[in-house]
């Protein structure tokens, strides 16, 4: 009826076109460069754009912020909340009423006609609160986007550490296999001259076969972890990228107590606080709805050849219902939202304390292996080689020493990865620095973030 009515047009997904766009994504594309420029204009200190697909972990953050699938879904959800907020608090459409009546007994004017237009005047003030509630829901959705961004960035670091550790393990395993092959050559010659029984020599061949299989497992792990990284970055398996291994990471620097940083900066906690604000507006709206709105209905009546102007009023009396059920439900939901915030804060603080304890224990183990165990194992291996060079070959001693050297190096890599992952978790709990706009926005400004998001 109205001139402002919209029309419907179907829009089915085009997976063929999406596949073509997906496989064309590349870290060095113009799209990534434009996105990085947009972040810099917003004040973010971002890494330089990757060239020729060569990626560091900091550069990978930019690619993930642009292409990551979970982030695209989170932004779509925020778009739904924004669309709802844009049209919240509108007046109800007027209601047109028409009535016709004909008198069967006859008469000079047997037809009676009446028309009316009903308007609801929101004198309760609920429309303004509906706008505020929709705005807070939109802000909560934006906070959820910031939380997802920070989560993805930390996931990229964790996946990068896991991939880098696997790469280091492959180097250590390859070196061990090379040393083991030298021992196997010695064992083979000793078997040939009868200095070593075949039943003893077979142990070394079994060890060699098992270690080759372990190396293959490590290579498979590298391939799987690289695919996991590609998934986080939103890149196709066929995208040409070259990752730069990095396992070390700096500890987070904070001023004051960690509790203050977690309260002020943790994105997950900020999302819950925004959702609590939404529950506040919902309760305010429920309370306001116990007050009635005035319905006014001007109309026209034609009867017995006479035109008449009508004016009707309707005002519900808040005596029996008073919206008490909804008020009670929303009040309970607000209390639940407060409890959720409080328990989430407790969990975050406990997780941070556990991460600190884990970091201290890992540092102690790391230093013990690096300063004590590895030097002793290396010394033992060198002495065993020197004795072997003098003609007194103890192959079992060589194998045991080589194995201990390998195991201590692998344990050192695991501890370095655990230490780095723990630091990432501490950074994740603390939240991004206040000047890091890559994972923080101004929730009080509806469009400030949307302008930067793809």
Which keywords apply here?
single chain; alpha+beta; Outer membrane efflux proteins (OEP); 4-stranded antiparallel beta sheet; two-stranded parallel sheet
Helix percent reads: 55-70%
Please identify which CATH superfamily of the domain at 56-92 and 134-276 and 329-430 we are dealing with: Outer membrane efflux proteins (OEP)
Rg from C-alpha positions?
A: 35 Å
- What is the oligomer described by this structure? single chain
Helix count?
Answer: 10
Q: Give the neighbour order of strands across the main sheet.
A: 2-3-5-6
Low-confidence segments, given as residue ranges, are: 439-454
User: How much strand?
Assistant: 5-15%
Q: Which architecture of the domain at 56-92 and 134-276 and 329-430 would the CATH scheme give at its second level?
A: Up-down Bundle
Question: Would you write up a description of this structure?
Answer:
Helices cover about 65% and strands about 10% of the residues. With about 450 residues, the protein is α+β, with helices and mostly antiparallel strands. It has a domain at about 55-90 and about 135-275 and about 330-430: Outer membrane efflux proteins (OEP), CATH 1.20.1600. The strands form 2 sheets. A 4-stranded antiparallel beta sheet has the order 2-3-5-6, with no helix packed on it. A two-stranded parallel sheet has the order 1-4. A hairpin with an 8-residue loop joins strand 2 (about 95-100) and strand 3 (about 110-120).
